[in-house]
Give the backbone structure.
Amino acid sequence: MPVPSTSNLNLWKKQLGHVPDSVWQQGEIETLILADNNLSELSTQIGLLQRLRTLDLGHNQLTCLPDEIGDLPQLTDFLYLHDNRLTSLPRSFASLTRLRYLNISENAFEVFPECVSSMSSLLELRMTDNRLQSLPESMGQLSRLRELHLRNNRLATLPNSIGAMQELRQIDLRGNPLTELPSAIATLPRLEKLDLRWVTTLELPVWIADLEARECSVYI
């Protein structure tokens, strides 16, 4: 299929099956939407899109991603990878230190991808509906993060390093088998919302009252 030359290319739900080679020849593309196209693989030629700022690969059938995505220096705005079949991310993703939004929800992650901890500019991280059983202390490096979405995983607790994430406004922990929470959460100065709905295994810590006293909304 012919693809028009543009800086914003929207190929959402075109039933492509694979991405036309002509897409990779358009080095001026800044926004590329490939969501909902039954994609099972992605060409390494994506590394040619050196101006890319936003990439949407959601609602596909991807089981892995090319290292070359980590070599896109302008990928700063949004990276949507939700609703695929991913179990890991390439180590090269650690180079995406300017990316502000990452969505890896609705995949098959059992282990937190360590490369995410290096994405130091992230403001919002969505990892809902996976199989994560724990999170590493390295997550504390995400010091600019404002929203952390972890709904429907298998988490029993969170790392103590969450106390280093001083910009956090929202933490969504719905539907996890939590048995304890680190008291460091109570020290987060900008926390506005802590969502614990559908959690039936947790005895609420006494510091929850302190959060509510400073008008943080706690949903239980």
Notes: The longest strand covers residues 8-10. The beta strands are 8-10, 31-33, 54-56, 78-80, 101-103, 124-126, 147-149, 170-172, 193-195, 217-219. Residues 8-219 form a domain with the Leucine-rich repeat, LRR (right-handed beta-alpha superhelix) fold (CATH 3.80.10.10).
